[in-house]
């Protein structure tokens, strides 16, 4: 009996996942800012923005940042693109301003993508922006300083797979192979020291791993790396791609004791809610790294609706931008971010610091979030019916519930409570575009 009581106590105090001896309360505390942030900016920027999807005068199919592999570019030739990478128009303060105005609370930028090029002044290797390219400026340092000043948390994407390091050659990518790769040497004497530099020099809040699917990388290596990084910075948050847990593009864990703090759906949003933290990363067009000919931009409305859908299901939305080789952000990206910021200025309280709801929707056009104290429900309406009558029946309302429309303070609108339902005649003049939020305080 005593044993059972002790076991029950342990189960309530500690996570049932592998993840360390951290109590649930400590984990909640560590994850709090990230959960509250709800909206982050992903930045894929590196040498691949130089060819921008073109090689030898031909369009290369696929993702911009994969050009080295997709076009089978030899290392020595790809290095010539690195020699041309000179983003003279890069202005970290301007990037931070764009991010802040968009309403993002954190930025995750590629410190090193699969091509192996480091976007900071690494002492472990010369294949970096300061030593190898003509630019000679430390991009991560400048952006970290600007983001911190703007109150935006700085986080780094880092690829485990590396197509440039001879020791890191993965069997899956034979065109990069060398005779005698030494994976352990790469892991211990290259990967880990570079990550240590990132933590020591720039103090990131999240490390966002990728390129973990190659056979050379194993779950025990992921757990070992997780423990190592947490020993350097205990408050770090790390995604589940540090191990082998992620289940394809769905991105959630395929097994119970997978390493990492959150799931990573890619280019998709979960069907429903999850008890495990998650973040959907998505592109604005079709590629992550800039490609000259990718004009398939999602509308601002679509991006705002995605943010709403993700928030209602309790996740974070990590929206990607792919800056150009000259250091500017494509205007199509900037305008969409500005639209999101405009919407969030009015409706942000429904997104930031709220929780999702198990029954996160009513019909196709209403999504819900709930304040942390549970007293306020936000009904986010993404499309109005033709008669502008919105009916909400899955939120408890009483005669004393206070109902308001965010951003709408003057002018008439009609709210009826009929048998526990809310029947709202939406006003003629709506506050803003794309989605509207009814706030219900009980
Ligand atoms: O191969 C990468 C890809 O280039 C991009 O970085 C995305 C972002 O999540 N992740 C990988 C594939 O899962």
Per DSSP E runs of 2 or more residues, the count of β-strands stands at 18
Radius of gyration: 23 Å
What composes the largest sheet? 7 strands, parallel
Q: State the helical fraction.
A: 25-40%
Strand order of the largest sheet: 7-6-5-4-1-9-8
Tell me the fraction of residues in β-strands, as a range.
Answer: 15-25%
Rounded mean pLDDT score: 94
Shape: globular
- Which molecules other than protein and nucleic acid are bound? ligand FHN
Amino-to-carboxy terminus distance: 43 Å
What's the SSE pattern?
Answer: HHEEEHHHEHEHEHEEHEHEEEEEEEEE
Which blocks of ≥5 consecutive residues have pLDDT under 50? 1-16
Total helices: the number is: 10
The SS-based structural class is: alpha/beta
Note the topology.
Blueprint: H1 2-13, H2 24-37, E1 39-43, E2 54-55, E3 58-59, H3 67-70, H4 75-84, H5 92-102, E4 106-112, H6 139-150, E5 153-159, H7 183-202, E6 206-210, H8 219-232, E7 237-238, E8 279-282, H9 300-312, E9 316-321, H10 331-347, E10 354-355, E11 361-362, E12 366-371, E13 376-381, E14 389-392, E15 402-405, E16 414-418, E17 421-425, E18 436-441
Parallel strand pairs: 1-4, 1-9, 4-5, 5-6, 6-7, 8-9
Antiparallel strand pairs: 2-3, 10-12, 11-12, 12-13, 13-18, 14-17, 15-18, 16-17
Helix pairs in contact: 5-6, 5-10, 9-10
Walk me through this protein's architecture:
This protein is α/β, with parallel strands linked by helices. It is built from 10 helices and 18 strands. It has helices spanning 2-13, 24-37, 67-70, 75-84, 92-102, 139-150, 183-202, 219-232, 300-312, 331-347; strands at residues 39-43, 54-55, 58-59, 106-112, 153-159, 206-210, 237-238, 279-282, 316-321, 354-355, 361-362, 366-371, 376-381, 389-392, 402-405, 414-418, 421-425, 436-441. It has a 7-stranded parallel beta sheet with strand order 7-6-5-4-1-9-8, sandwiched between helices. Strands 10, 11, 12, 13, 15 and 18 form a 6-stranded antiparallel beta sheet that branches. Strand 11 (361-362) and strand 12 (366-371) form a beta hairpin. Helix 5 (92-102) packs across helix 6, helix 5 (92-102) crosses helix 10 and helix 9 packs across helix 10. The longest helix has 20 residues, at 183-202. The radius of gyration is 23 Å and the shape is globular. Residues 1-16 have low confidence and may be disordered. The structure holds ligand FHN. The site of ligand FHN has 7 residues, from loops.
């Amino acid at each position: 009996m005593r044993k059972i009581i002790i076991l029950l106590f342990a189960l309530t105090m500690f996570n049932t996942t592998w993840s360390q001896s951290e109590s649930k309360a400590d984990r909640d505390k560590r994850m709090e800012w990230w959960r509250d942030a709800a909206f982050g900016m992903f930045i894929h920027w590196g040498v691949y923005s130089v060819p921008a999807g073109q090689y030898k005068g031909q369009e290369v199919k696929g993702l911009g940042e994969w050009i080295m592999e997709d076009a089978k570019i030899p290392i020595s030739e790809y290095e010539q693109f690195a020699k041309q990478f000179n983003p003279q128009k890069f202005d970290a303060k301007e990037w931070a301003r764009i991010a802040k105005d968009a309403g993002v609370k954190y930025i995750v930028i590629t410190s090193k993508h699969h091509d192996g090029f480091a976007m900071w002044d690494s002492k472990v290797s010369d294949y970096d922006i300061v030593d190898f390219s003509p630019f000679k400026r430390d991009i991560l340092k400048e952006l970290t300083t600007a983001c911190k000043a703007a109150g935006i948390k700085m986080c780094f994407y880092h690829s485990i797979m590396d197509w440039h390091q001879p020791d890191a050659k993965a069997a899956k990518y034979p065109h990069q192979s060398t005779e005698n790769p030494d994976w352990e040497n790469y892991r211990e004497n290259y990967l880990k020291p570079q990550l240590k530099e990132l933590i020591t020099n720039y103090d990131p809040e999240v490390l966002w791993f990728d390129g973990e699917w190659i056979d050379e990388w194993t779950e025990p290596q992921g757990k070992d790396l997780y423990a190592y990084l947490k020993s350097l910075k205990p408050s770090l948050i790390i995604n589940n791609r540090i191990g082998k847990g992620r289940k394809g593009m769905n991105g959630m864990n395929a097994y119970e004791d997978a390493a990492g703090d959150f799931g990573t759906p890619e280019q998709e949003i979960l069907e429903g809610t999850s008890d495990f933290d998650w973040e959907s990363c998505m592109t604005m067009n079709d590629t992550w790294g800039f490609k000259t000919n990718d004009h398939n931009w999602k509308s601002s409305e679509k991006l705002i609706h995605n943010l709403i859908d993700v928030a209602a299901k309790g996740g974070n939305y990590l929206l990607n931008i792919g800056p150009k080789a000259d250091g500017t952000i494509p205007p199509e990206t900037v305008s969409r971010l500005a639209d999101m910021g405009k919407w969030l200025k009015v409706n942000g309280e429904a997104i930031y610091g709220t929780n999702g709801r198990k029954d996160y929707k009513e019909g196709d056009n209403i999504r819900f979030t709930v304040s942390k104290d549970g007293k306020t429900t936000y009904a986010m309406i993404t499309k109005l019916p033709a008669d502008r009558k919105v009916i909400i029946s899955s939120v408890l309302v009483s005669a004393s519930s206070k109902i308001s429309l965010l951003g709408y303070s003057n002018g008439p609108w009609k709210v009826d409570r009929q048998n526990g339902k809310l029947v709202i005649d939406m006003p003629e003049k709506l506050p803003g575009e794309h989605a509207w939020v009814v706030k219900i305080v009980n």
